Amino acid sequence: MTLAPCDINDEFPALFSIDKVSAVKAMTGDASSRKYYRLSTLSGQRFVMQVAEAFSGKNSFSYGREIFSLAGVLVPEIMACSPGKGWMILEDLGDVCYQGKLDSKNLSSVLAPLESLFEANLDELKLKLPEAPQWGWFFDFEKLFNEMLFFKKHFLEGFLSLKNVDLGFLENLCRQLDTSPKILCHRDYHTRNLMEHEGKCYVIDFQDARLGPASYDWVSILLDPYSPLPLGLRDEGLSQFLQLHKNLLNVTHQNSLKEFWSCGIQRMIKAVGSYASFKNLQGRDEYLTYIVPALTHGAEAFVKLKELGFVDSKYFDFERSIESWMTEVKKRVKL
Questions:
Q1: Do 74 and 171 fall within a single domain?
Q2: What is each CA distance from 27 to 87, 94, 104, 286, in whole angstroms?
Q3: Residue 233 and residue 239: Cα distance in Å, rounded?
Q4: N or C end of the chain: smaller count of CB under 10 Å?
Q5: CA 49 to CA 126: how far, in whole Å?
Q6: Can you give the pTM of this predicted structure?
Q7: What's the rounded Cα separation, in Å, for the pair 37 and 39?
Q8: Residue ranges of the alpha helices (H) in 168-252?
Q9: Which residues pair with 90 in a beta bridge?
Q10: How confident is residue 335, by pLDDT bands cut at 50, 70 and 90?
Q11: Are 237 and 221 in contact (CB under 8 A)?
Q12: What is the CATH number of the domain that holds 179?
């Protein structure tokens, strides 16, 4: 899609009536079908334009932004939108994300939004935005296990050409996770979706937020394949999660660990399925290098869960399965 400054000035006359857009530059997108453009005006102001599917009223992005903002999470402002075209003008947060930059100095900033989501009063948020679709979206058994089937289709069968792999352990895992207390989850809380702007952590890509296990987003950042954490920092974040889980949801230490490591397995397996699908469906190779880090985290989570006594002996072979998958990936992908 080619856009000229005049296209945008004409579509948003109220925003760009005086200080007009003078340059449009395509930005590197995410793994979705959305397109992003950086807009520069005559005075040097910068905005980001998101191009997605046309909508009427508000879309899931608009609702997600409102929900997160009301929960106390920093998110980009929506400056203007054209629902019929699917165009949205957003505050420009710059290009600096937290990938490869997490350390002891900024970990608390990155975990602060998760504390806010943990503490958010869902009843109050639902009263303020009762029509938001996010309240009807869940990480329930159906959703969690469908992601495992997606992993089987795109990674095991589509990428490794393995057939008839038993998903019994993962099915059982998803059933157990479905019983966990649910809070508001971002769904994709990793370092590429966290922007450092004016010394603060802003959250993006929140349109698919839903209700799910409290550990889901914590697992996503503490076991992030894009930006693996040193063990000490990960343990620091895990301790913070365990304390919040106990204080706010009255979950015991052992059950909190069980949920965290169970969710760690599901989340990493889901990520592997996504990385493989980008190759299979879009021909994109750049995500393949993250498969081994994700499987490594998944294997570690399995060992932790087994050491806690939460894995039935009939599923012990799952650890060897992950190891064999990693061996095959290393033959196919330059790391």
A1: no
A2: 15, 11, 30, 17
A3: 10
A4: N
A5: 29
A6: 0.95
A7: 6
A8: 168-178, 216-222, 231-249
A9: 48, 78
A10: confident
A11: yes
A12: 3.90.1200.10
